[in-house]
Amino acid sequence: MFFDYTLRTIALGSAILGIVSGALGSYAVLRKQSLLGDAMSHAALPGIALAFLLTGSKMPLVLIVGAAAAGWVATLFIMSIVNTTRVKYDTALGMVLSVFFGFGLVLLTIIQKRPDATQAGLDKFLFGQAAALLERDVVTMGILGASAILVTMLLWKEFKLLSFDPDFASTLGFPVRMLDIILTTLIVIAIVLGLQTVGVVLMSAMIVAPAASARQWTDNLGVMIILSAFFGALAGISGALLSASVPRLPTGPTIVVCVSAIVIFSMLLAPRRGILWRFFRERRQRGRLRLEGILEDLYSLALEHKDPGHAHSLSVLRLMSAGKGGVEKSLEILSERGLVRAVSPGEWALTATGLEEAEKTISERSGKSDER
Amino acid sequence: MSGEQIEIQVIASIVAVACALPGVFLVLRRMAMMSDAISHAILLGIVLAFFAVGDISSPLLIIGAALSGVLTVSLVELVNKTGLVREDASIGLVFPLLFSIGVILISRYAYNIHIDIDAVLLGELAFAPFDRLYIHGRDLGPTSIYVMGVILLLNLAFILIFYKELKVATFDTGLAAALGFTPGLIHYGLMGLVSVTAVGAFNAVGSILVVALMIAPPAAAYLLTDRLPRMIILSALIGVLSAVSGFWAAILLDANIAGSMASVSGLVFLIVFLLAPGRGLAAIARRRTRQRREFAGRVLVIHLLNHEGTPEEARESEVGHIEETLRWKEGFAKNVVGYSVKIGMVLKENGRLRLTEKGREFAGRSVVEEFIA
Question: Where are the beta strands (DSSP E) in chain B?
Answer without folding.
Answer: 132-135, 138-142, 346-349, 352-355
